[in-house]
Every structure is written in C-alpha cells, then in structure tokens.
C-alpha cells in the first residue's frame, strides 16, 4: 500500500508534467491525493468498459495514457457518456491520474520504449527534439524489411506506408507515438523514415515528393504498449501494489 501523493510524486519524477504539451490535461483528474492505494489499473483509454472493469475489480486508482477529461464540463449528468463515467468513478471512490504527452517526451518514456520494442539494430540519438526520438540504423535497410520487423515485434497486422518517391534505403528514423503529422516540420530533410500514427493524405503526398517515407502504424498500434510501460514504472515505485492491465482495444475494424 502507498499514499497516492507519494506515488504521484515518484511517477512525475519519471514523467515530469512540465514536458506535457500546453493543450494537454495531465495529472490527477479525479480523487483525493491523500488516498491510500493498493490496487492500480493501467489503460490507454478510460472507456465505459474500462470504468466497469475498475469498479468490478475494486480498483483504487486508474492510470490512463489518454485523459478522459479535456475540456471544461458545465454539467455532469448520468445520461451522458462522460458524466456517467465521472459519476461511477466518484461513487466507487476511484482516483484517476493521466500521463499523456509528458510520457511521450520523457527520457525512458513511450517514444523510447516503442523503439526498444521494435528491435531494430542501431542507436537512439540524444534528443534535441523533445516530442520525438531519432534513431540511426546500424546499416541501410529497405523499407520493406523494416515494416516486417515492426509488424512482428509490435504485433501489428496492418500498417500504411506513404513511400518516398525515390524509394530510398533507410538509415535515419524518427518516431513519435500517437498522432504525429504536426511534428513533420521538425524532421524534414533530417531522416529517411518517420514512424507515427493518424497521418493525413495531403501531407503524406507532399512528403513522398520530398523523399521521406512515412509509416503509419495507427494511433492505437503506436500506443497500446503504454500499459506495459506503466506497469514497469509502477513496480519500480512499489512492488507490493497489485496492478491490472486493461486493453482498450483498437477503435477501427479492418474489413
């Protein structure tokens, strides 16, 4: 058992809140910072199913990657999706903490974690770009070989490739989890391949003409392993805590 205040303090030493984007809503979203914590559920998204699971399992704390409260709520009503989740969480004395873009950016955070999971041979470069991680492969490699390795290592069935017009071999890679097309200006002309999710048509078309491979591994595909990262970090803080992992599952079906 651990005080929530102590857990939050040590968690934020790993993932400093100041690394979060200005628009983000990270930290303790629901609950009493003085609460005693014994059982923690980690998840990507706080869906209704996730809340029901937490209630059923008598969870003390939910730690999610995506905050389920972003904008100000003028009403909290049982007959709305967000309202019913908030009410059920409060009624069952469950605290909610979210760590989002600060986890992406932190040293040892999600961007580095996914690179290690990809099992590519090479080295992660010291970050001059907080929101991204850059990686140099040991040897130049075809885009097809990289895709095969990523699909196997991350257990992803489908990816989308916007191929560079010159179909260049890949040596320099940049990665950011989630929706990353807004970061493309930071890496133009600096890498051969950018791996992220939620890529848009027109920017992908333009980057192909600038000879940049874009690999879209899907928003969920790039972030689903955050539950494993959270579990590892929480166990470093207190091994006695019971940790449950809830799989929010992919939003889209591929038919």
Automatic annotation (TrEMBL):
Family: Belongs to the GTP cyclohydrolase I type 2/NIF3 family.
PANTHER family named among the record's database cross-references: GTP CYCLOHYDROLASE 1 TYPE 2 HOMOLOG, NGG1 INTERACTING FACTOR 3
Keywords of this entry: Metal-binding
Single annotated GO MF: metal ion binding
A single GO cellular-component term on record: cytoplasm
Identification of the protein by name: GTP cyclohydrolase 1 type 2 homolog
SUPFAM superfamilies: NIF3 (NGG1p interacting factor 3)-like (SSF102705)
Positions annotated to bind a divalent metal cation: 65-66, 104, 219, 223
Organism, scientific name: Streptobacillus felis
InterPro entries xref list: DUF34/NIF3 (IPR002678), DUF34/NIF3_sf (IPR036069)
